[in-house]
């Protein structure tokens, strides 16, 4: 199949899942960050739990087209802190604002425009950011590759812990 | 609550997991934030080619097939279509709130839509600045990265929630009657 069409179809499925699961809702995101509504975090953790086992099972038969991002601890931690502020202020993330925009939410359209501006700003200060990317940079490292063992040995217990979290530990706090 | 999602987190989470596996099997793990770079680069390459070429970060995007409108960009277009379609179809089943001003935001910050737009713009800029510094966002780092047990993605996931939780509590600390 044409790769562009395949992208469109997989994207449509992803967008529909986020929308139907409530991830494009400002209330659900802020409810999550205020630790009152656990639905979105449970949705994400369930997805990760299923995907981790699936991807490493595929990897066992060499069918997973993995793409490991480099790990630079300090730079990523700083980036995450900046991202988190944006997450709470906008009430969306870079993907969910696209879905929310499609729902007709004009604030989400503005978040997309803000995102495009954020990238432009980043591109202008990029030379100054290289230091943050190069220090504590361990390259494309995963938990199994660091330990030198087959991925599934980590994936299965990790997924089990996530399932335990979503089904037994995380509880909504709406009275 | 009028905003309850159509699908429970269990079903949506299962579907999300299956989609992440399918994408990894067929093409590559999902990701969104790179396409903001592609979009910026396409615009800049057509509006101010010299400026685009002199910009170290944007120079490689926006022109060649792999770095322009390709699989990843169509994926994001698909998200828009898929999200819009499912919202349209389910709206007839459930009444969903669609407004520039989320009611929760209004209760805390008042009815000024320009203020909400400022927040939405600033939030978006911070999101993408952070995502590009990290090398991915909630999709590429958190969902896809942690699913591949990438160590940096665990750092990113923890960092965004620590910061997001603190910021949300600061924003919503003055409790208004609700």
Please describe what this structure looks like:
The complex is a heterodimer of chains A (175) and B (178). Chain A is built from 8 helices and no strands. Chain A has helices at 3-20, 26-33, 39-60, 73-90, 96-102, 106-134, 143-147, 151-169. The longest helix of chain A is centred in the last third of the chain and has 29 residues, at 106-134. Chain A is globular, with a radius of gyration of 18 Å. With 178 residues, chain B is an all-alpha fold. Chain B has a domain at 102-178. Chain B starts with 8 loop residues before the first helix and ends in a 7-residue tail after the last helix. The chains are: A mainly alpha (175), B mainly alpha (178). Chains A and B meet through helix 1, helix 2, helix 3, helix 4 and helix 5 of A and helix 1, helix 2, helix 4, helix 5 and helix 6 of B.
Topology, element by element:
The complex is a heterodimer of chains A (175) and B (178).
Chain A: H1 3-20, H2 26-33, H3 39-60, H4 73-90, H5 96-102, H6 106-134, H7 143-147, H8 151-169
Helix pairs in contact in A: 1-5, 3-8, 4-6, 5-6
Chain B: H1 9-26, H2 34-47, H3 49-54, H4 71-91, H5 103-109, H6 113-134, H7 138-147, H8 151-171
Helix pairs in contact in B: 7-8
* Tally of separate helices of chain A: 8
What's the helix-strand series of chain B?
HHHHHHHH
How many angstroms does the end-to-end distance of chain B come to? 13 Å
Strand share of the residues of chain B?
under 5%
Helix percent of chain B reads: 55-70%
Based on CA atoms alone, the radius of gyration of chain B comes out at 19 Å
Beta-strand level of the residues of chain A, as a percent range?
Answer: under 5%
User: Are there runs of chain A of 5+ residues with pLDDT below 50, and where?
Assistant: none
Using the CA coordinates, give the radius of gyration of chain A. Answer: 18 Å
Average pLDDT confidence of chain B is 89
Q: What does the oligomeric state look like here?
A: heterodimer
Number of strands of chain A: 0
What would you call the shape of chain A?
globular
Structure class of chain B: mainly alpha
State the separation between the terminal residues of chain A, measured CA to CA: 50 Å
Low-confidence segments of chain B: none
Largest protein interface? A-B, 124 and 119 residues
Number of helices of chain B: 8
Query: How much helical structure, as a percent, in the residues of chain A?
Result: over 70%
